[in-house]
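Take a protein:
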Amino acid sequence: MIYEEVRELLLTQWTYTGGPNEAKAAEYYHDDALLEFPQSGERFRGKANIQGWRQQYPARLDFEPRRIRGGGDLWVAEAGLRYDGGDPVSVVKILQFRGDRIERETLYFADPFPAPEWRRPFAEQGAELDRQPDLPAHVAAGT
């Protein structure tokens, strides 16, 4: 996969995730794909299971894409995610491809936290605002 293909796939997936058109987002998965949430210990095996729970999603999702990096069959996307218009949660999405479809996806979520004072002399501020210029600032999901 090349960057432009992965970017288009992710923007489409974020647009249709968690809504009545979830089948459009699920088109990018192999039938035997695996989706993992290591923090909750959940695994969703197979495109039908991934699509099934996402169609039932109880919240409105709004994505704030930040970065996409990778090469070949392994890509990482970073984004903010708002549930029902709430405060953003940071999301890291690791995608492993087989051909032009997702074989394995791993998602990590983290709430923002204040930086400790002792690190201030060494740090720059604004990492959460560092967005690639070719990514939209906002993608409303569930359309």
Remarks:
- The mean pLDDT is 91.
- The domain at 3-123+133-140 is CATH 3.10.450.50 (Nuclear Transport Factor 2; Chain: A,).
- The beta strands are 29-37, 42-45, 61-71, 74-83, 89-98, 101-110, 139-140.
